[in-house]
Amino acid sequence: xxxxxxxxxxxxxxxxxxxxxxxxxxxxxxxxxxxxxxxxxxxxxxxxxxxxxxxxxxxxxxxxxxxxxxxxxxxxxxxxxxxxxxxxxxxxxxxxxxxxxxxxxxxxxxxxxxxxxxxxxxxxxxxxxxxxxxxxxxxxxxxxxxxxxxxxxxxxxxxxxxxxxxxxxxxxxxxxxxxxxxxxxxxxxxxxxxxxxxxxxxxxxxxxxxxxxxxxxxxxxxxxxxxxxxxxxxxxxxxxxx
Length: 242
Description:
The chain is α+β, with helices and mostly antiparallel strands. It is built from 8 helices and 8 strands; from the N terminus they run ββββαβαββαβααααα. A hairpin with a 5-residue loop joins β6 and β7 (about 100-105). α4 (about 155-165) packs across α7 and α5 (about 170-175) runs parallel beside α8 (about 225-235). The longest helix has 22 residues, at about 110-130.
């Protein structure tokens, strides 16, 4: 079980399994009057005690089904939560009373997670500028939680491209996610076949985009929306001016 801080902050919940479970499953008096969620849904939220909130979700969904990520600690969770409310407005589920809550539908949970994390990161950058600090310091500001980044290989690209081609993703969409803005399946396969590692700054981003789209499509999402989300979530490095 992960070690969760007792401080305040913003968290993000994703679930495993297809069985629909009430968000108040342990409360018999409310169970049937609440929305039900599964692996197609996700949730962001704020808490004054992240460890307590984690324990509450474990009791509701079971620790084996729960993916609980702390996005940020010790910041201004109320302000951040308002930003998340506005950003995810069109995806927020409504309960029987018609009131929106923080559970999301209609967006891939992993895409929602990366978007929420980006909002938290941008909040820290803006806060640092307002305080005229030269750079972000975790000893002076909030703690931002970064997951371990996957190190992609040429084989990852070959597997993703083979999947996308076999499932008939249009080649024009493949071109959209490539750093040249033009690309074919044959050219990608030729370029990465036989290579041992990815070179440069752009190829790892291309690999991340391909991987995200392939996994999202396997989970039931459509290619056009996945391409837009991949471009948003995995930007190419800015070109350095000479």
